[in-house]
Amino acid sequence: MSSESKGERSTTASSHVALDLSAAEDRVLVAAFLAGSQDAFAVIVSRHQRTVYQVCYRFVRNHEDAADLSQDVFVRAFKGLRHFKGDSSLGTWLYRVGVNCCLNRVAVKRPVTETIDEARHVDHKRDDPLRAVVRSENAAEVRQAIAQLPPKQRATLLLRVYQDLSHEEIATILGSSVGATKANFFHALGNLKRLLQS
Amino acid sequence: MTTHLSAQEFVNALDGALAAARQSHLEGCASCQTQVDQLRAVMAKTGDDAQIPEPSPLFWDHFQARVLTAVQAESQPARRAWWTNWADVRTLIAGSAVVIALVASVTLYVNRQVTPVPATLADGGEVVESGVLADASAALESDEWEFVSSVMGGLEGDDIHEVLTPSHDAVDAAFEALTVAERDRFMKLLKAELGEGLE
After folding, report:
1. Which helix (H) or strand (E) is B32 found in, with range?
2. Which residue from B120, B144, B155 is spatially nearest to B134, judged by alpha carbons?
3. What region, left, alpha or beta, does residue A95 occupy, with left being phi > 0 and alpha being psi -120 to 50 degrees?
4. CA dihedral sign of residues B21, B24, B28, B31
5. How far is B16 from chain A (nearest CA, A)?
6. CA–CA separation, B161 vs B165, rounded Å?
């Protein structure tokens, strides 16, 4: 079958099921995407974009790079979804793609520097002004300390603390054992303690 | 004497998932208890950075379209501009140079058939060339020769060698490019130069 006729058929098919796709489970979306539905991929992006963005932001600490990285993650997902076997959830698989993108980026880019906007970012809705300022200063210290961790420890810490993932999920994402993941987390906390004290 | 908690067990203790036997050690070991407390304090401190700035709603509105555009761009087969293929460019230059050199050679040869005239002195006593030299000089100053010179001048040594020793295919192609009248003229010139062996 030519790709053109396949595309026409998928467009027609996808227009009929577009409404249903928004409520479909991830595995259904993946199946629909692999059958040629672009709409299914659009729903996948819409559903996971915030999580992917948050992970990317944690690594690069600025909006522009996080947005670029998030885009890269979904482009890679588009090309790699045919290799998704369904052993883990789509979310976990996207985390894996995202963390790999982030680690690659962090490896080739200069060390993360604090932007002025971020350093001054104060969540006034949560706290009274004084406490908000103190919290903001603490947050900046934590960010700088986390940025100095070795890549795997950093990824483990970010996924555990900020994304609230289980050690099993993190092990799947990083392609390591649960024991190694826990050891990484322990050492990450130990290094963080040392960095914060210094 | 029991051993202190391992790295994995400390993490289990933070998660409240330490095995009962090890939990009893933790409760009786000040060293392990201190370390767990310190790790817990570090985890609490990381909570200060729990919030990240939320992008504008406009960003999310455009993000999906941005991803789909990027995906479509990635799906397009990479198109390479013809001039980025150096092999093609070299072939083109060499082919053009062969044709131009051929035409220039014919022109020079025709000019050599003009009867030589001795050099004369101009009014200022300057020697004025004539005959073959003058004709060759005229040919050298022609636009065609300038073009040939400029093309050849921009070539590397290997490329010049390639142009001056063209392949049979290149010569055939150059000959094919001549008009019927030019071919007749060319053949006559070759016969005159090489004798009747061409018959």
Report:
1. helix B30-46
2. B120
3. alpha
4. positive
5. 13
6. 6
Nearest-CB residue to A71 (from B7, B39, B70): B70
For the record, the structure tokens of A157 come out as: 């810490």
Q: CB-hemisphere CA count at 13 Å for A51?
A: 20
Q: Do A75 and B71 touch (CB under 8 A)?
A: yes
CB–CB of B11 and A57 under 8 A? no
ipTM of the complex: 0.78
Alpha-carbon torsion (B121, B125, B127, B128), positive or negative: negative
The residues, ordered by sequence, that sit 6+ positions from B99 with a Cβ below 8 Å of its Cβ are: B174, B177
B123-157 pLDDT tens trace: 444 444 444 444 544 555 555 556 555 555 555 55
Nearby residues of B141 by Cβ (< 8 Å), 6 or more positions away: none
Structure pTM? 0.61
Amino acid in the structure at residue A53? Y
| CA-atom Rg of chain B in angstroms | 43
B51 contacts A138? CB cut-off 8 A = no
Residue B181's pLDDT is what?
A: 79
Residue A96, token pair as written in the block: 């894996």
Cα B69 from Cα B84, distance rounded (Å): 26
A6 touches chain B (CB under 8 A): no
Chains A & B: contacts with CB separation below 8 Å: 94
Q: Does B171 touch chain A (CB under 8 A)?
A: no
